[in-house]
Write a structure and sequence with these properties.
- 11% of the residues are buried.
- A hairpin with a 5-residue loop joins β7 (93-100) and β8 (106-113).
- By secondary structure, the protein is an all-beta fold.
- The chain starts with a strand and ends in a 12-residue tail after the last strand.
- The protein has four domains: 2-63, no CATH class; 67-113, no CATH class; 120-197, Immunoglobulin-like (Sandwich), CATH 2.60.40; 203-234, no CATH class.
- The protein is built from no helices and 20 strands.
- The strands form seven sheets. It has a four-stranded antiparallel beta sheet, with no helix packed on it.
Length: 234
């Protein structure tokens, strides 16, 4: 038996003149190739730690490095001919890679890259408001938003109207500053503009009762004096 190593292609051939099957279950033979340390190897089918006979045959081992690769679609891929590459598509994309050996045999596999749209907050309507007031966030990438914050204070009530509008109630404790929105994946968009939180207003209803008016000399004249319902006394 002898081996041939082809420079350039690194192909290895094993040529066998004659192998006689040993007798006894403990006497087995393996035919193949292995690395220098013996930690990795490839055997010829049917000749791995077993009894076999061979006469005037040969096997060729072709390195895996001779495989070629082709990714499609090739746009937005750092190198579409490598086994491992980097893809940065602008939108969610399904990719296919085809591996082909020197004999033209090929196999394919698929993978997908999901792109989460960037959250961009372009403005508020109105640009200021008090806690409890509902305002409108404008921008894009809102479809997957699950949280809105005014500074470090989370809004407990908001509604995603569409990809461009969110209606949100200014939470108690909110302070003036940027407004942010987040997705389940942890992506965050922060407004470049500042939202101004104003003090709240309250309605005060008063009832005024007039008892009279001062006429001098430490005396008051009751408003109801003319009706005989009070006396003119200090």
């Amino acid at each position: 038996m002898h081996c041939i190593l082809y420079e350039g292609s690194n192909e290895i051939e094993i040529h066998t003149t004659n192998i006689v099957s040993p007798t006894g279950s403990a006497n087995v033979t393996t035919q193949g190739i292995e690395n220098l340390t013996g930690t990795n190897g490839v055997s010829i089918p049917g000749r791995n730690a077993t009894n076999f006979s061979a006469s005037n045959d040969a096997y060729r081992f072709t390195p895996y490095s001779l495989l070629t690769y082709q990714w499609t679609p090739s746009a937005n891929i750092s190198n579409d001919t490598l086994a491992v590459t980097t893809a940065v598509p602008q939108a969610s994309t399904n990719f296919t890679v085809v591996a082909t050996d020197a004999n033209g045999c090929s196999v394919s596999a698929q993978t997908s890259v999901t792109v989460i749209p960037e959250i961009i907050i372009t403005g508020f309507i109105p640009a200021s408001g008090a806690p409890g007031q509902t305002i409108q966030l404008q921008g894009s990438g809102f479809s997957n938003v699950v949280g809105v914050k005014f500074g470090n204070t989370s809004a407990t009530a908001f509604a995603v109207v569409n990809d461009n509008i969110i209606n949100v109630v200014i939470p108690a404790g909110a302070t003036s500053g940027p407004v942010s929105a987040t997705t389940p994946q942890g992506c965050e968009g922060i407004s470049s503009a500042t939202f101004t939180v104003t003090a709240g207003t309250a309605a005060l209803n008063l009832k005024v009762f007039l008892q009279g008016y001062y006429i001098g000399g430490n005396s008051m004249l009751p408003v109801l004096y003319d009706n005989g319902m009070s006396s003119n006394s200090p």
